[in-house]
Every structure is written in structure tokens, then in C-alpha cells.
Amino acid sequence: MGTLQQPSFEDDRDVPTVDEHLQKVGAEAFNKFQRRVMNLDKELRNFANAARQLGSSVGILSSSYHLRGRLAQILYLFRENAADLFPRKISHQTRESLTNPQLAQYRKSKRHRAPPHVHNPIVMEKLDPEDFPEQLQMFAQDVTTFLDCLNEFPEFTDEAVNAAVLSLEGDLKYWASSLKQYEKEFRFPAVQRYLHDLSGEMGEHIDNITTSLSVFIEIGVPTIRFAQKHASQNLLNLSTVATFFSAVTATTMQFSFNMTTTPLQNAVNSFWFTSLVFSIGAAVNSLLGVTWKQAMYRSPGHRVPWWVLIWIKRSPLAFLVLSVACFSIGLVLFAYASQQHQITCTLTTVFSACSIIGLTAVSAWFASERWTFSRHNGTKWLADVLSETKVRVKSTRGAQWLIYEPREAFRIASRWVAERFRQVGEGVSELSARTLLRLNLNGDSDDEKYDAERAVTPGTTVECASPEPMSPTFRRAGSDAGPLLPIAEIRSPTATSVDGGDGGDGASIMSDSPGPSTAAPGRGRFANAVRAVIKMRVASSAFPVEGRNPRRQRTMSSDGNGRDAEPVGVLKNSRVGTLMPKLRSLQTTQSFEAHSALVRHLQFSPNGKFLATSSWDRTSVIFKVGEQFTSHRILAHPQGFVGQVAWSPSGNLLLTKLGRGVKVWTEDGVCKKTIDRRRNVQSIAWLPGGEGFLSVEGSDVTKLDLTGTVLATYHFERLIIHDVAVTPDQARMVCVGTLTASMDGLHPSKCRAEKQIIVYNMETEKIENRVPVLHEVRDITLARNDHVALVSYENKAPPQLWKLEPIKKHQQSANTEIRLSLRHTYMPKTQVDFAGPSYFGGKNDQLVLCAGKAGDIHIWDRESGTLLHHIRSQTVGGDLTCIAWNHAWDTFMFATGSHDGAVRIWTSPASSNIPGSEASSIFATSRAPTNPANTPGTTTPNAYDADYRTDSPTGQLTSESLDPATPGTPGILNTGSGSAANAFGALPQARPSVVTFSSQAFGSSER
């Protein structure tokens, strides 16, 4: 988001720079969408040019052209919509084809001169904003047709293009179905803004398709072209071979065409004539197949009859095989018919038979491979099928006996024969050895030599002994010396210890002669121990251990003073000019630890006397508002987290929302009623009269009284309600929710689900008006004295102000309906991740406040939408979760909650009577606990230092019953099951009493 220009004010007129900035941002968003559409159109044009080289490309060319035409119509509708929203930045598109009939007629007359995929698409029909749902539905059909034509090329499949197109198709159908309920409202600014936001979502899909299509043009088109060229080359090769073979057959026929006397001669001519027919047919069919495959206008494979595909693809090879077989048979018969020599006839017959058998076997293998592919869809090879068949054949009983029994008998016979041959061979070898030995005996020397040779066997080993034993060396580092690692003595007379010095390496050497240094003396060991202890202390002193916890580093701003530079030259008499000094003087006057966990919500009472906070530590605290905030009551909720607090319009009752229920409290901390809803409660809202409240529960909004009795239930079809607010006349409620499904039951594929702001008539129980929004809407707040609603969103979406305008149904009717219209979008200067709901502030709700998760606070002027003040995170200190304004005080005061459980009170100097030195000391005081003994000269007021009083008739437990060692800790009053005392027995000493009047447990899921 661009940087907001410095605003300038003049009297009470709205500042034009805010609207100028919104115009600029909206125009930039549309221009970005337009560039995305043009990039896709360019890629489609490039794809059409590249696809002309492919066979059967007329389908993809036609679908891409129609898709480009649909893109032009979609872009025209979005441009007209943006021109209505941002007239100073975007102009309406001129359509010469509509205003000039002669030009349209000229284009129609020239249309036959070029194919439909050549010229650029032009918007020829008159489009209206009411055509948005229909155009989006047809856009989805066009992208689906384009994808189907793209998948008709079996040579290449791109999963990226398929995923991108299918995702866009799902979201387009969802948008088209959702927009049908806004019929006749497409010229309303609220619906127009929603359509403008949809252009960003659609642009992301278009970018994905553009990228995938660019990759397909670079990789897929050449791959398809190569596969088609390869198939055509095979047919050309077949045509060449068939032509050559037909010439051979025709030449050979010259030797036998006049031999017609005997039946054998007639058979020769028959086979050769048949061979010539098949060879010519193979050549012609091959050329026909090549021409068909390269034709751009040919039909895709799944749209051609099966016999045509078989004839074009299979007939050339089959005809050529038959021609060769017939020619071979005729050649054999010609050898006998021409009365050749017997050897010639025999050899010709044998070799021809071998050739035919081989040709038949290979043809059968090709046919089997084709059958295997069609049967198993490429998951198995023919060899796998043959192996499985072989296994099944072997598994049968008869076949198993025939296969394995003869094989086993042959194996036994082979082993028996081998064993007999081995025995015979050993006998012959031993006999020959003895004979040679007896012939070589010549005396005693020969006998001794023979015995020596017999004595040495392969299993005998020769041992060599050394007069000196081996001396292994053991080394250890000098740092290991000392008492840290005890040395085990080697009890051997050959152990000798050699010490190389105090810090050097030592060695233990094995020797025959013992030395006097076999054991270290006791004095040396003591010295080593002392050195080791000194080294350990030196090492530990190099890394000191801090005695206190490090403080959390706060978020710093680029500006050291914590404030933005505000505009100069503000007129003092202007309405906005009077607010600027007060906002600049805002500062933190009090800061205290309200909770031990995240502060989920806080709210001032209508009379301004109390501040209620809720936290995830299962407590809600009521503070007394004054110059020093003091804790009034702590409301324990052992059932679960406290997600929201809500003061009644009179200020004497307080509602606390749990995960699956609501508690009703008095301002003195007495629990009057625990209402168990037995279902998740998203939010609660008081009725203006204070006699009851509304509970938001999924798709239902339940109206309850203070006793928990259900007065009415309002159901919203296909919606999940998040928050609700009731108008002062109690006739209507304004809700915000998320659409769960479209009118046709469709869900978004990739985009965000549609959200709605709804005006619901509680008397007629009908929806009077609904407005679609794209951002994650969560909260809504109504102004006290004006019919405006402040809508808050999650994440980076800024808050918006919507006007509730009464409109008569008919001119003569007195009944009116409420229509929502957007007044302002409160833009920050930079992108901000907002935290919690936004609120009205100031006198007559003239301000709008919203906190960021990083810790900064934004304050806008409600009427002009101008950012008046920006408090940076360095000044706030900590990550914020919620903010609340005190409407009862004449001067400015608001409170903020943070993640660490702290609550800070912000006031202007006029709203506090604290002296300057004391206020500055409070502002500078850290929230970290400080020991009072170390700082006797300073006294910091604590928020929990308050007298405890209650109107409840129950008694109080003494502090000694909880912790005898801390007599200053106040007691805990518990009229329930006692879980509160157990849960809060470990709270800090400054915590006051904990009051709970209910032990009924129910779910604790947090919103």
C-alpha cells in the first residue's frame, strides 16, 4: 500500500487527500488486473501461433480464440466497474464497433477471409453489469473447453496447466453462483467494490495459468511436435519399404506370369499377385496416414471411428507382413514348379519357413504387447504377464508333478553318477601316488625326507617368540591429569609411569625392569587436585550467570520520538484542528499487570466508573476508574477462558462470555446467573433496553433474557455469524458472517470465501439488505447517536464505516428498509496487521481507534477518514490485543491490553489532576516487580491496593488460611466448589480477593 500524502485541513470540510489516495490505490489494482489479463492474452496468442505446427490443432486454436474473446468481455466489465468506482483515475472504454454500424458490418464482411483464430477478439455485444454472473459462468466453460482441447494431445500432459485451469474453473463457478443473489444490485457501490476486490483474486489465477502456459509453449509444444513427427516418419519408412517390395514382386512376376499349365504354376502366380496387391496397399495406406496425421483440421483420436483408426494406423504394417509372407510362399512353390534341383528346393523351403516363422513370432509378440497395454493400461509389461502365466501353470498339481518330478529324478541321477566318478578318480590318484613313492625310495635319507614332508600339514602353525615383550604406550592429555579422572593402576611388575611434567603429556610404558616411579607420590596428587580446582574456578568466572531475568525487547520504530510528524499549518478554528493537540498530548498515565496471560478483551462501563477486562488466565477483573485505577473485583472462571466482556446499557450488570456459555455479574462481583448454551458461543451483544442479550452461535443468533430463557432464535442459511449489533429501536440487528456455500451448494476452490454484512429485521425475521465483502470480517460496532456501523477485519484489512440508510419500499408505503452504503475506509500509512476490533472514540463518536499487533495505535477522524494520530509501538510498549475508549469522560481516555497481561491507561493531561512529577514517575515506572527494601524513597501506587467490600452475605476467608507466610495477602471468597481458590492461590501478593458464585462447568473453547 502506497504512502499516504500529508493531508491539509481547511475549516470543517473533509480532506480530499484521503479519497485521492483511495482512488489511486483502486486504479493501481485495476491496472494490475488489466496487465495480468493482457499477459494471458499474449500467451494465448503465442500458443496459437506455436500450435499451428501440430496436427489436429484446430480445436485448440478455436478454443484459445474463444477464450481470448471471453477475456476481453471480462476485462470490459471490470473496467466499467472500476470506472464507476474511480472516475478520476479510470475512464470508460469506448466501443467503436457499437457506435459505428458501418465498422461492424465491415468486420462481418471480412470475417470469411481469415480463420477465426487470426484476428484479435473484439467486444461486439452490449454488456451490462448485470451480466457478471453469466459472463463468469461462461468464462468457466471456456477455460474448461480449452483444457479439454489441450488434453486431446496424448503425446504430452502438463499437470501444472491442468491444476491451474481446474482451480480457476472452480472459483469462477463459485463466484457466478454467489453473485446471483445480488441481482439488480450490481450498480450499488458496495457490490461494485466487492467485484473490484474479486479482480485481485482472479488475477492470481490468471497469473498461474499464464506461467503454466508459457512453460507448455516452451516444453510441451516441441514434445508434441517431435512425437507426431516420429509417428509420421515411421509411416514414411513403411511406405518406402512397401514401394521397394512391390517393385521386387513385380519384377519377379515376369518369370512366372506366362506359366499357367499346371496347378502348381497357378498357385505361384496367385501368391505373387496377392503379394503385389498387399505391398501396393501398404505403400498407399502409409502415405494416407502421413497426410492425415499432419493435417491441422483432422479430428482428435477419440472422435474418430475405431475402424478408421485401425485402417490408418495398423493396415500399412499388416499389409506389408502379408505381402512378404505371400511372396515367400510363392517363391517356394516357384522353385518346385520350375523343376529346380532338389537341394535348391530344400534350402529354399527351409529358409523361407524360418523367415516366415520368425515373422509370425514377432508379429504375435507385437500383437500381444498391444493387448497387454489395452488390458493393463501400461501397468504391466508383456514379460510380466508371461511370468505370471508361467507361475499359474506351475502351481497346478498335474503340471507341477510333470515339471518338478522328472527334474528331481534327473538331479538325483546326476549326483549319483558324479559321486561314482569322484570315487573312481580318488582311487586312481591314490594308486598312482603309492606307485611313484615306492619307485623313488632310495635309502634312509629318502625315508627321512619322506617323513619330514609327511609331518608338515596345512593345519600346522609356526610361533615366533620374542625375548622382549611388546610395550604398548598409553597417552593422555595434560588437562586430564589430576583428581578429576582417577587413574587405575596396572598391577604388573613391568608397569612404569613416566611423567613428562605438570602440563605436558604423560606416558605409561611396559618394561621388564621396574622403576621407582610406579606410583605417584601423595604430595604430587594433592598438587594436581589443587591445580584442577583453580582451573575450574577460572573457567566458571569467565561465564557469569545472571541473577535476574532479561527484559523482553520491545518493538522499536524508525522514529525515535514515538510519534509521526503531523501536518503543519492546521487551522485552529477547524474541527479536526482542535483534535490534533489533544491527540498529540495522549500518554500512558498508568500501567499495571492486570492478568498473568493474554488480555482478550476490555470495556469501560457506560457511566465510566469501571473498566472490565478478560483474559486467558480464566479471570475477569473489574477496576475502579479514577486518577489511580484500583482493582474492584476479580471474577474467577474455572470453566474456561474468558473471551469477551459486555456492560449493560445501564452499567449495573456485566456479561462474560466463555466458550460454551455466558455469566451474568453485578458491578460488585456477584454472579447472578450462569447460562450454559451447550454449543460454541462466538460473541454476545446487549439489547438497547438491557432486558436481555443476543448470543451468536454458529448459524443462529439466540435472543435470551437475563435468566437464560430463550426468547427467539434467528437462523441464517448457509452462513456462519461472527458478531452482531442491535439498532437503538431494537427492530433490526446488523450481523457479519462467512458464507459456507453458494446458492448452488458450491465451495471455493482456492479463493477466499465470501463474507457478508447483513441487516436483519427482527420483527419480520427477514434479511433486508446484504453486502458482500472479501476480507476476513470479524466484528461490528454501532455508533451511539448515529446510524453508522464500524466493521473490523482480521489481518491487514483496514476498518470500514458503513452507513445505515432508510429507504422506502414503495413511494406510497410508510414501511422502510435499511440499505448499507460504504462511507469510509480508514487507511493506515503503511500495511498494518490489526489486532482485535476497532472502536469509536471521542465526543459523539468522532474518532475511530484501532490497534496493531505490533503495538502501534491508529486514530482517524470518523467523518473525513483522515489519520489524525499514529502512536508507534515504542511508545506503547508491547504487542497489543485490544483497545477500549471511555465515553463517559469529557476528555480523552482509553485503555489497551497486551499479550503479557498488562493494561495501560492513556489520557490527555487535562483529564488527570496528578502533578507533573508524579505523573512522569508513574509513566516511567517499570512493570517489573521491585523490592521495596531497595527503593525506600519511592512509592508506586498499585492497581490492586484497594479496600475489599462486598454486598454478598457470604463470609470471608482469612489470608492465613491460604499462606501463613504472607499475612498481607487478602483473602479469597468462594461460594462455589473451591476451584477458584485452588486456581488462584499462587497469584501475586498484590492480587485482591477472588469472587465466584458458580461451580457449574461447561466447555471452554475460545473464539
Automatic annotation (TrEMBL):
Keyword Transmembrane: yes
One Pfam family here: WD40
Entry keywords, A to Z: Membrane, Repeat, Transmembrane, Transmembrane helix, WD repeat
TM annotation in the entry: 235-257, 269-290, 317-337, 349-367
Biased composition annotated in UniProt, kind: Low complexity: 928-943
One Gene Ontology CC term in the entry: GID complex
Domain of life, per lineage: Eukaryota
InterPro entries hit by this protein: WD40/YVTN_repeat-like_dom_sf, WD40_repeat_dom_sf, WD40_rpt, WD_repeat-ST_regulator
SMART domains reported in the protein's UniProt record: WD40
Compositionally biased intervals (Polar residues): 951-961
Coiled coil: none
WD repeats: 592-625
Entry keyword Transmembrane helix: yes
SUPFAM superfamilies documented for this protein: WD40 repeat-like
PANTHER family noted in UniProt: WD REPEAT PROTEIN 26-RELATED, WD REPEAT-CONTAINING PROTEIN 26
Protein name: WD40 repeat-like protein
Species in which this protein is naturally found: Dichomitus squalens (strain LYAD-421)
